[in-house]
Amino acid sequence: MRLLKTSLALAILAASATSFATESFNAKSLAMSGSGLAVSDFSYGTALNPALGSNYDASDDFNLNLNIGAIGSDPDELVDQADAIVDLIDRLDGQTIDTQQEIDLIKQLDQQLTDMSGDTMFVDAGLSVEFAIPNKYVATNLFIRGNAALTLTPEYESLDSEAIDRIVQNNGQFSEDDLDSRMIATGAAIAEIGLNFATKFKVGTQVISVGIAPKYQTVETIIYNESINNFDEDDFDADQYTAEDSNFNLDLGIQTAYKRWNFGAVLKNAIESEYEVVGDKPVTIEPQLSLGVGYKNSWAQLSLDVDATAAQDFSSRQDVQFARFGLELDAFNFLQIRGGYRHDLEGTYDDTVSVGLGLSPFDVFNIDLAVVAGDNDTLGGAVQIGFGF
């Protein structure tokens, strides 16, 4: 029952919580704030829209790319605060508080517990491997993707201050069991492996691309709920705090173009699925529809994507719904400069801006970097290394 209570408390406190459907850490896409579901090419676009597997040039044969990235925010150094409090508790545990030095230490403990109230940190990290085989019949991509997201927040109990005051007034003995404040971490680690199939066909004179990405998902949810004196970040993935579940799912996409304008739509996680959570009712992940428009010529690409429906944030149980804008400038297919902006229409996340740089000499090798920044000391980045054949 207490676990359910603290989970609901987290829903109120976690203003910068991490989404169950975590960010894509493909460096090309992240540099444009995750936009591009209507206009990205086959090498990285299928993570945004399965139909983009057929968006390739006649000279493209194969592409392999590796991606890794992370984004996080810990403006109050919450983990360091918690570690310092644990050290102070260990120092005072079992001591009779009858000297000025011990009184100062236990008052310091009380102040640190109070100061930590309301602080929140989050981290979201991911990696992926994408192998693309363009084909005029059915373009195919093999993908392996993994993301882990975690939010950490304290649940401060005012009774701790009252207990400390009584110990000081009575020169009593302090025990770590006198404290009721807790540390709570919630998150999920998501692994996907699947195949992406895309093809083109004509309706009159209009070329339409469609795609489907069947995938096997394994989701490990984390709800760490421990007293402050027993806090240890190394225990976040211990068995008593985690639950693992697996499901088959798929993404569906469509894309078309008119002159230099491109239009796309994607339905992510088209099959509604439930995932078990420690000490709580299962979380239901519903399909999410996103729409995009883009403009592309030989040296520039513009993209605007909007989530048509909101998705529930796992940690806070609040809705998130993103609008994303991205820009890419390409110099001679050798140097790419990118930028982007992301806004949460539901207001759960702060706005972020992104920039990136890519090098693709001779179109056989590429390295791409992305940096993301936002309010509350939010900072992240990603890197991609790719090979074309």
TrEMBL record:
Keywords: Signal. Gene3D superfamilies: Outer membrane protein transport protein (OMPP1/FadL/TodX). This is Plasmid transfer operon, TraF, protein. It comes from the Bacteria. Residues 1-21 form the signal peptide.
